[in-house]
Design a protein that fits this description.
alpha/beta, globular, 6-stranded parallel sheet, 2 domains, Rossmann fold, 7-stranded parallel sheet, 43% helix
């Protein structure tokens, strides 16, 4: 018997491993799944094994970056895909990005009765302004360092980036779409800057009838702020499927008692953008980590400690300095390649330590990890995870607060009655 088809647009590869793969595992026995991926998936070590696993009925590749090619290829490929498979539902990681906007529009045109769902792939910034500011600051500092611009050029670099963002938005959301499919896009959130447009104007939303899938009530509130009309709070599909992921991407091979440290990126750049010298920032953040790791090692004498940077931080000159300082003081802490899946490390660890990394959010959603959020670095929005009262995250604002209770408490698994399968089966 032929299965009903669902299109899955999971976003970039790292988001696929965080969430998209788990939705796929949940749905694959009941539906035929067609994955809409980007060309950079093929460069990942897990790609061939995942794609040959039988989870997907078909996989189509779109260009990874915005370009003229992306617009023409996306419009042509998605229209052909929709007509071929006649999907009953589409599951997307966002409704803001160019490839999402094309899929939404073409589904409305060629499959108007296809249900549309938007899943939350990572931690949503409760403080949206601070989150966007951190990302923009990271771009300013990165460009200034790369081009060796003097410090007093920061306002000029900021203005150049803002002009570039404005042009990119109008080219990708207005000019190219009207050429390729005869319409313009008006997403509720600017995918480049994170700016939220007037959510009260439903005619300006990308898809006011779409169903948004969140995992906590506080993030459901943020989704409404972003213009969502219907929101469902469900159990994250990773719960209970951790071993299935490791079977596909490989085991991290950590020690039996493991503590993984997962710092964020972007916040050190924001400190520099706010006028702090890079060397001062590197010194402050690295010494905070040195002291915190020392405390954790004393509280977990039998644990092996690992540290992995965010992939975007691997070439960051500030984080290279920070990591060097940490290693000089704690040479027994094993440094893991930034390209290694954070998910595999989390699954194989019983204690996860970080600042405001999305990885902490993901680990807490699993319900069986000891998760510690350190707000000790002076980051703006450094207390973001404090707001997640529904999750078992231990928030501390001082190294002195890290106690035996924090690292040895028993995680309390939390399960929600509603899964995505429950939601979709009621609608289809």
């Amino acid at each position: 018997m032929n299965k009903d088809v669902i299109l899955i647009q999971a976003g970039p590869p790292h988001l696929f491993l965080t969430t998209g793969i788990f939705y796929s595992l949940e749905l694959s026995s009941r539906y035929g799944l067609v994955l809409i991926a980007t060309t950079d998936y093929a460069n990942k070590y897990w790609y061939k094994k995942v794609m040959s696993s039988g989870i997907f009925l078909d996989v189509v590749m779109l260009p990874a970056k915005n370009s003229v090619t992306l617009h023409y290829a996306t419009a042509k490929t998605l229209k052909k895909l929709i007509k071929k498979y006649k999907p009953v539902a589409a599951l997307m990681h966002s409704e803001f990005f160019v490839d999402n906007l094309y899929l939404i529009y073409l589904l409305k045109m060629h499959a108007p009765f296809c249900d549309r769902y938007y899943f939350q792939p990572g931690r949503m910034g409760v403080n949206v302004e601070a989150n966007n500011k951190a990302r923009f600051s990271e771009r300013i500092v990165g460009l200034m360092h790369k081009m060796r611009f003097p410090t007093n050029w920061k306002p000029l670099v900021s203005a150049m980036l803002r002009m570039r963002d404005l042009l990119s938005y109008y080219i990708n959301c207005k000019l190219f779409p009207i050429i390729t499919i005869g319409t313009t896009f008006n997403p509720p959130v600017n995918y480049i800057t994170g700016k939220i447009y007037d959510s009260s104007n439903l005619s300006g939303l990308a898809d006011p009838r779409g169903v948004h899938l969140q995992y906590t009530s506080i993030e459901a509130q943020v989704a409404y702020l972003h213009g969502a009309v219907e929101v469902r709070v469900i159990q994250h599909p990773a719960m209970g499927r951790e071993r299935q992921l490791l079977d596909l991407i490989g085991d991290a091979g950590l020690s039996a008692d493991s503590c993984t440290i997962l710092p964020s990126y972007g916040f050190t750049s924001m400190m520099v953008a706010n006028g702090n010298h890079p060397e001062v920032v590197a010194e402050k953040v690295s010494m905070c980590w040195v002291v915190a790791i020392d405390k954790i090692k004393r509280l977990l004498p039998n644990h092996k400690l690992y540290i992995k940077l965010h992939p975007a931080s691997s070439d960051d000159f500030i984080w290279k300095r920070i990591l060097s300082t940490i290693y000089s003081c704690h040479s027994d802490v094993k440094v893991i390649s930034a390209e290694t899946s954070a998910e595999s490390l989390i699954i194989n660890s019983d204690v996860i330590v970080g600042d405001v990394s999305s990885s902490l959010w993901w680990a807490a959603l699993l319900g069986n990890k000891k998760v510690i959020s350190l707000d000790i670095f002076g980051y703006e929005d450094g207390d973001a995870l404090k707001a997640y009262s529904e999750l078992d995250v231990l928030y501390v604002s001082s190294v002195d607060e890290i106690s035996s209770e924090h690292v040895n408490h028993s995680a309390k698994p939390k399960s929600r009655a509603c899964t995505f399968t429950d939601v979709i089966c009621k609608n289809i």
